[in-house]
Amino acid sequence: MKGANANTGRGQQADVCRIDSRLELFVDDWLIEHRAGVELRLQHPIPQEVSIVFDRPWEGNTSAYVTVFQDENLYRMYYRGSHFDWASGQSKHQVVCYAESVDGVEWYRPELGLHKWGGSAANNIIWMNGPGTHNFTPFRDNNPQCRPEARYKALGGDERGLLAFQSSNGLHWSLMQDRPVITEGAFDSQNLAFWDSVRGRYAEYHRGFRDGVRDIMTCTSKDFLHWTQPEWLDFGDAPREHLYTNTVIPYFRAPHLLLGCPMRFMEQRKKIEDHPYNGVSDGVLMTSRDGLHWHRWLEAFLRPGLQRERWWQRNNYAAWGLLPTRSSIAGAPDELSFYFNEHYYLDGNRLRRFTLRTDGFVSAHAEFAGGEFVTRPLVFEGCELAINYSTSAAGSVRVEIQDVEGQPIGGYSLDDCPEIYGDAIEEVVRWRTGGDVSGFSNRPVRLRFALSDADLYAIRFRR
């Protein structure tokens, strides 16, 4: 696989892939048995508008560690408000701040009245003067057994370890206990946790140093207070690199897949000579099917780009979270929004929104000359096959259904599949006899895809 380690997770592959009706993305080659003329091509988010400038007196030039998530019809944002004083070489303050949006594009800071700053409570501060202000990282807990008073949970670090917080409304927070819940690791980063609905447990990811290199550890828990011993993530044969953050999250359209966009830190490089600190960074993409074994791309998912200030140290942090947002193009389908910081250490420190096609992290791509791939045997449930794809005006996608021995099934061969061309998030594949595939449901088959100047991002059998 171009640009990535080939490990897809030891012990994960079985003779037959059971995918039922879930969405499957081509973020790794787990589903692919062999391919020719097709590569898995990493895609890249597109910069959009500045979402928020951290210019309030209680914010500042080192405001960071942003969290975003959708909470029913509201988008929530949490972040550290902090300012670095160059004269003293010290941070002046650290507080936890909150913002909201109804569309993920325009964000506003409500005046919450919870804490006073400069004698006034007209601010958006939700936590201060306590542990965890450096990297407070919350989430909405969708565990069906979650108590109402702990509907929102968070982790925040101090010198002792990671502390657990709870809230009934996402604004008023309290410690769940005084002592840390996780103590093995290095906690001066954005450390996070979430309810893993597929595996029925809480999962947590935090920083550790392994042989002097910033790396990522994980724990799991049934109750958010008692956690397993941390384990290092397994990146297969990918080279050791400093991973400053992790942003691991289940992909909301396919929660069996975990995604991360860690900030990769090249600590010895220095692009801007008048900046006092070494270090440049970018964002990389990693994916997992079990939370422990990861497929990490070596090329950048997000490059620093043409902005001079993004080549300063500690820029290009990805916010933790991924939001579905409406496209600015009339009639276009919804897209994905990411948020990355820029101008860190400077006045005007801010967060910029980036967008990506829905499911569009990686594509199975073929040039115009064409290519094809065949899946491993799979078992699905459903009556039609929908694909997320894009072609040129001259390109095409065709699909063949095979038996487990690789022989085309009558009426569903490539010759029976008219060329599919266009651009769609979910388009039903049709053969000359129609698109009904229910006759093959719950029995092993293979799929053969023939691509020409085309990208295939995801597939799903729909009921």
Keywords:
463 residues; mainly beta; Jelly Rolls; Tachylectin-2, Chain A; 2 domains; 8-stranded antiparallel sheet; 4-stranded antiparallel sheet; 33 strands; 0% helix; disordered N terminus
Q: How many discrete structural domains?
A: 2
Q: Tell me the name of the CATH class of the largest domain.
A: Mainly Beta
CATH topology of the largest domain: Tachylectin-2, Chain A
Could you estimate the helical fraction of the residues in percent? under 10%
User: Structural class of the helix and strand makeup?
Assistant: mainly beta
> Globular, elongated, flat, extended or rod-shaped: what is the shape?
globular
- Biggest sheet, in brief? 8 strands, antiparallel
Q: Specify Rg, calculated over alpha carbons.
A: 23 Å
